[in-house]
Amino acid sequence: MKKILIVDDMIVSLMMTENMLCGHYITFCASSGSEAIEIYRRECPDMVLSDLRMPGMSGYELQQMLQKEMQKTIPFMFMTADSNEDTETQGFENGAMDFIRKPFRPDVLLRRVGNILQTVDQIEGLKRHASTDSLTGLLNKSSAAEKLKVVCARARGALLMIDLDSFKPVNDIYGHFMGDRLLISFADILRATMRMDDVLGRVGGDEFIAFFHGMQDEEGVAHKTALINERILTAAKDLMGEDMSVPLGASVGCVFVPQSGVDFSSLAKKADKALYAAKQSGKHGYAVFGEARTQAEDGEATTLSNVEKILDERSPVKGALQVPFEEFRAVYRFLRRTMNVFGKPASMLRFSLPKGTAAETEEEFFAFLCSTLREGDVVTRHGGQFLALLVNTDYPRLSSVVDRVRQNWAPAKEEAGAEIEVEWTVMGE
């Protein structure tokens, strides 16, 4: 049953209004604005029916104070005996959903209150539809981000990026229908690990984001990760059979709040870096931003086929392969060895932007570079430099690559002081 808070400093009028509504709604009564605020904090009613002119705090002031404190639009309907049309106009300008003049008939009041509550329900339904991921029922990417901006700025806890490992083979082997069923099960598993005030959303594909209030130690992250991995494997075998051989599991990247900051955008990037570290450590485990320790469970990698699936690139994208600097070093050394054995040419490029270039522009250039180079090339970032290894590339080919990068990098960026400095070498020469 819907809840209505009635506010009127005239006790007789307050009792009469409650008598009209109490048979249809749960009602709460307040004879002043300050009393109404206390009741609203405690009961969170669905709408407020308030007298407009009251001593101490008017209906307008009550509405403004409540909405500022609760940081949301609250359905308000004002009552008044004032016949001035300007009063009604001001009420609507302040955000009232309706306005009724005293004295009023019970049937008219009930109809107007019912209309407001029906409108609110329709609006809330549209909001839920717009903010919800249609497959899993979780918050979608944009809605999760909006909610987490507020949570991360105020709360203590852990922000987690959670990825369903080896999901692509499920679609390839069992079909997209089974893939959807698995994602729904995974969402249910994540939901079951959370409390009511925690936040959970799907950011796309097989990636999810969560905030656990109060989680401030690595032990809690380890426990959640182990629990999720245990349950997803059980769920997958229930869906696809005990002989299911896909090495499914979950990788988790964690950042603690507020120790690592309170800005959601920055925290999400840190959690994503931790997730990447967990992936590079063998999947099915976790990594905490700023910590060297990771956990991995590779018990399913018992065949060469499973090892290949674990080693395979997750969700490959077009363009060059992006790797951390240490992996770039290993690729460089490998190419030097193959050149000595097979005589295949390779080249290395170093790109840099001027000192003081905005971080957003650097991110944009790195994405541009990755998409411009070939799938067989390898790129990394090292400090303020962007390095690329071009396999089977001699000087003529190298020169054309440099020209293409220079020509395609947005002229507006160069005009803004983000011109590219390039240095290159053909390895072995």
Oligomeric organization of the protein chains: single chain
Question: Widest sheet: strand order?
Answer: 7-8-6-9-10-11
Q: What is the β-strand count?
A: 16
Helical content class: 40-55%
Please characterize this protein's 3D structure:
The chain has 429 residues and is of the alpha/beta class. Helix content is 48%, strand content 20%. The chain folds into 3 domains: 3-131, Response regulator (Rossmann fold, 3-Layer(aba) Sandwich), CATH 3.40.50; 141-311, Reverse transcriptase/Diguanylate cyclase domain (Alpha-Beta Plaits), CATH 3.30.70.270; 321-426, Alpha-Beta Plaits, CATH 3.30.70. The protein has a 6-stranded mixed beta sheet, with helices on both faces. Strands 2-1-3-4-5 form a 5-stranded parallel beta sheet, sandwiched between helices. Strand 1 (3-7), helix 1 and strand 2 form a beta-alpha-beta unit.
What are the salient characteristics of this protein?
429 residues, alpha/beta, Rossmann fold, Alpha-Beta Plaits, 3 domains, six-stranded mixed sheet, five-stranded parallel sheet, 15 helices, elongated
Helix and strand arrangement:
Layout: E1 3-7, H1 11-21, E2 26-30, H2 33-43, E3 47-51, H3 59-70, E4 76-80, H4 85-93, E5 98-101, H5 106-131, H6 141-154, E6 157-165, H7 168-174, H8 176-192, E7 199-204, E8 207-213, H9 218-240, E9 249-257, H10 264-280, E10 286-288, E11 294-295, H11 304-311, E12 321-322, H12 325-342, E13 346-352, H13 359-372, E14 378-382, E15 385-391, H14 395-408, H15 411-415, E16 421-426
Parallel strand pairs: 1-2, 1-3, 3-4, 4-5, 9-10, 12-14
Antiparallel strand pairs: 6-8, 6-9, 7-8, 10-11, 13-15, 13-16, 14-15
